[in-house]
Amino acid sequence: MLEDYVQETIQEQNKLAISSDRLMQIQQCELVLIHTYPFGEETLVSDRPKKEISPVLTSEVHSVRAGRHLASKLNILVQQHFDLASTTITNIPMKEEQHANTSANYDVELLHHRDAHMEFIKSGDLHPAGSTSRDSGLKETVTLKWCTPRTNSVELHFCTGAYRISPVDVNSRPSSCLTNFLLNGRSVLLEQPRKSGSKVISHMLSSHGGEIFLHVLNCTRSTLEDPPSISEGCGGRVTDYRITDFGEFMRENRLTPFPDVQGSEVAGKVPLERAKRQLERHTRYWPMIISQTTIFNMQAVVPLASLIVKESLTEEDVLTCQKTIYNLVDMERKNDPLPISTVGTRGKGPKRDEQYRIMWNELETLVRTHMGSSERHQRVLDCVLACRSKPPEEEDRKKRGRKREDREDKGEKNGKDSESERSWQESERLKAALERDREELAEAEVIKDSPDSPEPLNKKPRLEVEDVQPAEKAKGPVSLLTMWTNRINTANSRKHQEFAGRVNSVNNKAELYQHLKDENGMDPHENGKAMR
């Protein structure tokens, strides 16, 4: 009966508001009926949850015992209907009136907007240690401990929100002392009670303009700090992001207020949709890393790259794009270097012909992503394809240049290999000559001075150290092995005396067994001895 009366009243009021320019219609009404009954008696009215009577009116019924239970119920309903939350400040030091030298700790419960607990909700710790519930868990309060104010600037915290507070028990002595303490210009830091670990200061009470606010302090990384480097992302340390180009990209695609919204909607061009389409065109091909692109590192390609992303091109824009393409062709004909990134590569990097092939491929990819925008975009793509297809004589010239470069590289490599091979062969030849000299010395000691001595082996004249030097010594650098071998040979040549026959020989030829001919008067050939 009461709900029907309220609904009829709302309907009549809305009818009057329609015909008046000073009244407003009632859009939403919540009817809450509280039935109280004396302490010690049973209730005759049962609770009824929220029920929708009409799109404008909702109704709910609560049955509460009189006394302190009514105050608790009103506290819970206030929090539900006004989107509030409860915080209890514990361990507030307060001097006793009867004992001035002693103090006791009191608790004060505060009501504030529920957003002050948003940090707890984000971290998933909506019920931190010390939180309590009232009335069989109908509503909870978050407990924060009184903390001594900090004056060190290093320990100051960033504030992310401030919300007005109201004590639940306004007339109590602890609430009055706390409000007077704060209104006198003092501040109180509040920490989360924890069983272990360091304390976390999450809130602060302070007054501004005669009103007390609960300030939310950021416990995690502050939003006002410098953002972390993008090179520290999940993809590893990447240091060559196109940061400057991305800044220009953001300036070109920022949202701005648009005055004539109705006219644009009639024309079918909502500013937000136009901005989305422009963003889509600009991001069809946009490499994020410098080493992944060539054309965006070239100043000569900037006119084409800035025009090709437009929704429509003019004839002047097409001519500008064609001039840019012809300039690239002229650069290729002159064999100008390109800004190819060599990060992470070894050697000289790709050859000049390969660099231009990469550049033309990327340019074609950029233009091809926009060829469907208009007929003039297609003309720009046709120009790129025509300039890429070189005439046969140009291709032959490129092939000859590549073959010449390959021959030069191969010649340099073979020259280094042949030089090292010659040095190795020369050192082996010197070692063999030294071995032969040692063998000849050993055999010369065994040979006896008698007619029955065996015929000595043919000896080769000892080569001077200068004679065994490589003929190519003056033509190029000498390897370390050759230098060391020459030094050893020079030292060994000074350790023994030269043979008397070789010293007295003529043209490095000495006649053997001359004493036989002098004593016997016979030719040494008759005894089978050879004469040299």
Automatic annotation (TrEMBL):
InterPro entries: Cell_cycle_regulator_Mat89Bb. GO terms for cellular component: cytoplasm; integrator complex. Keywords: Cell cycle, Cell division, Cytoplasm, Mitosis, Nucleus. GO terms for biological process: cell division; centrosome localization; regulation of mitotic cell cycle. Residues 391-471 are annotated as: Disordered. This is Protein asunder-like. It comes from the Eukaryota. The keyword Protein biosynthesis does not apply. It comes from Scleropages formosus (Asian bonytongue). Pfam families: Mat89Bb. It is found in: Cytoplasm; Nucleus. Belongs to the Integrator subunit 13 family.
